[in-house]
Amino acid sequence: MLSAREEILESIRKHLAASAVFDVREAPGPAVQYETPELGELKNSVSLIDLFADSLKAVDGHCVLVDNKQEVVEAILSILSALRAKRLSPKRIAISDADEVRDLAESISAEVDEVAITPSAADLFVFDVGISSVQGAIAETGTLVLEADREQNRLISLVPPVHIAILDAEKIFLTLGETLAALFRDGKVSPAITFISGPSRTADIELTLAIGVHGPQELYVIVKRA
Fold this sequence. Notes:
Layout: H1 4-18, H2 20-25, H3 31-34, H4 37-45, H5 48-58, E1 62-66, H6 69-85, E2 92-95, H7 99-102, H8 105-109, E3 114-117, E4 129-133, E5 136-138, E6 143-147, H9 154-158, E7 162-168, E8 172-173, H10 176-183, E9 193-196, E10 201-203, E11 209-211, E12 218-224
Parallel strand pairs: 1-12, 2-3, 2-4, 4-7, 5-8, 7-12
Antiparallel strand pairs: 5-6, 6-9, 10-11
């Protein structure tokens, strides 16, 4: 029988070996130089949109695919309706200052009591839903990447109980390295980047899982394909 120390070392060796393909993906230099057969097969067998949607579902997020601005509005209204069925009562909506999000305010205002653009940090705690856009997404983990210097989205994505994110399909990348490379501009990246993988979750020392303690308890991502 293996000792506790030997079991730990064996587990480390096993997981290091399994992570080799991911290490190759993140290596510096041209992607084609380091691309492995496994990565090529993945890209050919499934689209980044499908992979992102599956990964998001695996972390308890919801993905809605749309093709134009009108369908974005319809998707938001459908989500609000679904939230009412869950008794989450979306009456007040906070939206970011991104142009594409601000343009939605008039279309959804009739369905709720209030729509506010980037309310103050103190006021955000009384809002039920936060809507923002997204600067990037990682397909293999279903992770959203938000830049604070591109949009006032940080608190809006973290404080209200429900976060609705609007993502352009062209901003979905396979890995973390590819996503950060795309966000690298003028020799730097945003000083504040938020990574979101599904609803907020935490566990105590007894591993009892709680959802929505340190952030939204529901995450919806509207992926705009065109």
